[in-house]
Each structure stands twice: as C-alpha cells, then as structure tokens.
C-alpha cells in the first residue's frame, strides 16, 4: 500500500538538485515577502517622521534598488540550506531529506535562520507600527493646533459658534480641497500599510513561536533512543510530541502563506494605482473575447455610475450641512445674543 504513495515522492527525493531547488524557492519566498513588508514599513516611517528630508529621496529608481537588494539577500540566505539541512534532517512527512555534503545540522545556523525569518521581522514591524501610530497622532495634534489661524479668520468674518472645530473642517474643505485630498490620501495609504503589516505580523508570529519551541525541544529536551526500560517509554513519548510539533509547524507555515493572497486583496481593494497596474497587466497578458469584454465594460460602467451618484449625494449633503451651519451663525438671533453677551 505504501509503494504507490512513495512513487510520486521518489523523483524529488532522489534528484538532489530538484530537492535543493525546492528548498531554496520556499525560503526565498518566505524571506522576500517578509522583508518587503519590513522595507515598506521603514520607508513610510521615514517619510512621515522626516517628510522634508526623505520625501525627495524616495524615488522609483531607489525603490527598485532596495527591492533587488532584498531579493539578492534572500537568495543568499536561502542558499545556506544547501549546506545546513536545518529542520529537514528529519522531515515532517517522513521521507529522506536531501543533503549537499552536510553531516547534520548546526544549531547556531538554525538560530540565525529563525531570527531572520520570524522574530527580527516581527520585532521591526511591531516597533515600526507603534512609531507610525504615535507620529500620526502627533501630526494630527499639531495640525489642529496650527489651524488656530482658521478660527481667527472665521471670527474676523463674523462667524462665532461654539463648535469651532466643525467650522474649521468646513473651512478647510471649502478653502483648500487639494490639501485635504492629499491629507486623506496619505492617511489612507498609511492605514493600508498598517493593515498589511499587522496581517503579516499576526500570520507570522505563531510560526516563529512554534519553530522556537521545536528547536528547544530538539536541543534541550532531547531523549536518546533506548531498547528497554523507562528510557524507551520516554523516548517514544518524546518522538510522539515531536511529531505533533512538526505537524503544527507545517500548519502554521501554510497559514502564513495566506499573507500573499491577503496582501494582494488589500492592495487591489484600496490602492488605485496598484489596481490599474494589475488590470493593465492582466489585460495585456490574457486577451478576452469581444463579447466578454463588452459585458465587462458595461458592468463596470454601471458600477461606476452608481458610485458617482453616491459620491454626488454625499457631497451635496456636506454642502447643505455647511450652508445650514453658516445660516445659523449668520442669523440675527445669534448676533443679538453675541451683542448682549
């Protein structure tokens, strides 16, 4: 019964180079995706923390250099698996691991691998998100404090109301729509980045915990095989718990791979430039028939019309509310009350 099951695994195990390529590709995808999120977090933190210094230095050419350097570093770290087997010295699924002139596993290299793949990115993402949230709160506070000149302008024009913050927002919206649009776009992209970072952190942290605990289980709590006596029972129990840890590690690794589809969905949902670039890429790569393209274009135009109607109604409601607030402030009753006061 086991021969048919092992027949499809045999080419991967017997072909050493194919097995090594599989190990390298898995580690490259793991390191590359994780450290790209770390790079985006650090870049956004530098731009928001020191906008006058780093906003001009963030160009497409430098972004490509950073992406290429992260990819090259990930490939170099993944190639260490050809020398040090790591966890594959006793595989989760029970078939023989591939080794390139290596006589086992060095625990120090496994420590470095776990730190670079899970714990160090998690720590950097967590600290970066905390600093980002703190910086955004400080910028909002300073923005409200610096908007005192708007209150003075409103007071000089005769508008005196108790809810001055609402008037400030209305004044900002009507006076400088471009600034408000840039402010909203910045905060929307920041919210997207924080969402992607927290998603990566939540999906990657359990994998790091299980890998660390499994390494502690293999190094500190190791049991030697014995033929008889209580030592044999302890060894059997240790092997059973070790196998359970291996399956849990495989489960959390598959859960972490959901981060790829989750990030793509978040970028498509909130990023207009990313959505247009993805649409153009798939449109050029996969040509749809004329009937399907007409149906899709009609559906998109209908959805776009409905969205434009909703936005128009929302803007008219805002304008009517601002006009009502101005009428209340300009009414003779309020002016009399202010004179008596």
UniProtKB/TrEMBL annotation:
Its main location: membrane. Keywords: Membrane, Transmembrane, Transmembrane helix. InterPro entries: GPCR-Ligand_Int, GPCR_Rhodpsn, GPCR_Rhodpsn_7TM. Pfam families: 7tm_1. The chain crosses the membrane at residues 24-46, 66-84, 110-133, 190-209, 247-269. PROSITE patterns: G_PROTEIN_RECEP_F1_2 (PS50262). Residues 1-267 form the G-protein coupled receptors family 1 profile domain. GO terms for cellular component: membrane. GO terms for molecular function: G protein-coupled receptor activity. It is found in: Membrane. Belongs to the G-protein coupled receptor 1 family. PANTHER family: FMRFAMIDE RECEPTOR-RELATED (PTHR46641). This is G-protein coupled receptors family 1 profile domain-containing protein. It comes from Polyplax serrata (Common mouse louse).
């Amino acid at each position: 019964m086991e021969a048919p099951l092992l027949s499809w695994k045999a080419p991967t195990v017997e072909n050493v180079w194919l097995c090594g390529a599989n190990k390298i590709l898995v580690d490259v995808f793991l390191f590359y995706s994780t450290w790209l999120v770390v790079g985006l977090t650090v870049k956004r933190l530098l731009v928001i923390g020191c906008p006058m210094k780093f906003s001009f230095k963030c160009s497409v050419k430098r972004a490509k250099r950073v992406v290429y350097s992260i990819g090259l570093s990930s490939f170099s770290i993944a190639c260490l698996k050809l020398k040090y087997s790591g966890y594959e010295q006793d595989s989760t699924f029970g078939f023989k691991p591939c080794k390139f002139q290596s006589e086992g596993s060095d625990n120090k290299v496994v420590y470095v691998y776990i730190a670079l793949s899970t714990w160090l990115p998690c720590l950097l993402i967590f600290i970066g998100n905390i600093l980002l949230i703190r910086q955004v709160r400080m910028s909002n506070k300073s923005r409200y404090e610096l908007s005192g000149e708007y209150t003075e302008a409103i007071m000089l024009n005769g508008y005196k109301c108790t809810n001055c913050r609402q008037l400030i927002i209305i004044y900002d919206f009507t006076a400088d729509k471009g600034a408000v649009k840039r402010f909203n776009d910045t905060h929307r992209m920041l919210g997207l980045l924080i969402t992607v970072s927290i998603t990566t952190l939540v999906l990657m942290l359990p994998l790091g915990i299980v890998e660390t605990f499994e390494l502690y289980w293999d190094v500190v709590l190791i049991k030697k095989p014995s033929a008889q006596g209580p030592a044999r029972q302890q060894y059997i129990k240790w092997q059973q718990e070790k196998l359970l840890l291996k399956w849990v590690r495989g489960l959390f690794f598959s859960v972490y791979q959901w981060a790829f589809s989750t990030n793509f969905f978040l970028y498509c949902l909130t990023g207009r430039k990313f959505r247009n670039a993805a649409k153009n890429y798939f449109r050029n790569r996969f040509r749809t028939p004329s009937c399907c393209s007409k149906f899709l274009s009609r559906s998109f135009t209908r959805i776009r019309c409905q969205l434009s109607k909703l936005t128009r109604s929302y803007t008219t409601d805002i304008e009517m509310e601002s006009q009502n607030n101005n009428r209340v402030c300009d009414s003779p009753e309020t002016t009399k009350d202010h004179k008596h006061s």
